[in-house]
Amino acid sequence: MHPMLNTAIKAARRAGTIINRASMDLDKLSVARKGPRDYVTEVDRASEEAIVEVLRTAYPDHAVLGEEFGLQGPDQAEFQWIIDPLDGTTNFIHGFPNYAISIALTQRGQVTQAVVYDTARNELFTASRGSGTFLNDRRVRVSGRIRYHDALLGAHWPTASDPTSDRFRDMTDGCAGVRRMGSTVLDLAYVASGRLDGFCGVKLKPWDLAAGSLLVLEAGGLVSDFDGEQGWLDSGNVLAGTPKVFTQMLTSITPRPAA
């Protein structure tokens, strides 16, 4: 196992201890609102602090980009860690056990190491570029689903009241079902491990996508933006899936109306 991946796993497990301890007494949580349906707790912050401490102790010349505290370290560092200390905070607050820690390492902008840790289930998803994707030390791959009408998708997209939601109608109507479970990093991990056949996300952040994208790619899946290009980390719009399902998802997206 790559030593930098080992460090990321150590950081994820340390943060997981904090999250699991807090999950035993949710009534004592201090919750703040960052925006509409966007919450943060002291657990998010404590988790990020624990992760950053492990990473920057091991690699002080690396930069760290985190959801809660932004960029720490050199602006132009060759290596940058991208972390979400608790993806699925709303689920966590409600005691709904679908949330996870996400840690990715980029080298010159390319994701090379990835960890997604589901603390509630003690499931650790890992990947190193060129070495495959693993769930608790067992190699996993995307599903073998080829028929789109049999595909189960994960989603993070606008509600029906949003005028842009029409773009995804064909995608929704053509598949077996769509699940909005509230944790993008777990949705992508589930695509990588064959539990979901595809995922569509809109207006996501780099910490939502970096680790999960490598998991999917190393498990034999495909990832792109809505134009079939590699701009998803910048745009926040992403498709991921098995090769056959991915192609049909991309075809099903209605083009954005001209301005």
TrEMBL record:
<dbReference type="Pfam" id="PF00459">
    <property type="entry name" value="Inositol_P"/>
</dbReference>
<dbReference type="GO" id="GO:0006020">
    <property type="term" value="P:inositol metabolic process"/>
</dbReference>
<keyword id="KW-0460">Magnesium</keyword>
<feature type="binding site">
    <location>
        <position position="208"/>
    </location>
    <ligand>
        <name>Mg(2+)</name>
    </ligand>
</feature>
<feature type="binding site">
    <location>
        <position position="86"/>
    </location>
    <ligand>
        <name>Mg(2+)</name>
    </ligand>
</feature>
<dbReference type="InterPro" id="IPR033942">
    <property type="entry name" value="IMPase"/>
</dbReference>
<feature type="binding site">
    <location>
        <position position="84"/>
    </location>
    <ligand>
        <name>Mg(2+)</name>
    </ligand>
</feature>
<dbReference type="GO" id="GO:0046854">
    <property type="term" value="P:phosphatidylinositol phosphate biosynthetic process"/>
</dbReference>
<dbReference type="InterPro" id="IPR020550">
    <property type="entry name" value="Inositol_monophosphatase_CS"/>
</dbReference>
<dbReference type="InterPro" id="IPR000760">
    <property type="entry name" value="Inositol_monophosphatase-like"/>
</dbReference>
<feature type="binding site">
    <location>
        <position position="87"/>
    </location>
    <ligand>
        <name>Mg(2+)</name>
    </ligand>
</feature>
<feature type="binding site">
    <location>
        <position position="67"/>
    </location>
    <ligand>
        <name>Mg(2+)</name>
    </ligand>
</feature>
<dbReference type="GO" id="GO:0046872">
    <property type="term" value="F:metal ion binding"/>
</dbReference>
<dbReference type="InterPro" id="IPR022337">
    <property type="entry name" value="Inositol_monophosphatase_SuhB"/>
</dbReference>
<dbReference type="GO" id="GO:0007165">
    <property type="term" value="P:signal transduction"/>
</dbReference>
<keyword id="KW-0479">Metal-binding</keyword>
<protein>
    <recommendedName>
        <fullName>Inositol-1-monophosphatase</fullName>
        <ecNumber>3.1.3.25</ecNumber>
    </recommendedName>
</protein>
<keyword id="KW-0378">Hydrolase</keyword>
<dbReference type="GO" id="GO:0008934">
    <property type="term" value="F:inositol monophosphate 1-phosphatase activity"/>
</dbReference>
<comment type="similarity">
    <text>Belongs to the inositol monophosphatase superfamily.</text>
</comment>
<dbReference type="InterPro" id="IPR020583">
    <property type="entry name" value="Inositol_monoP_metal-BS"/>
</dbReference>
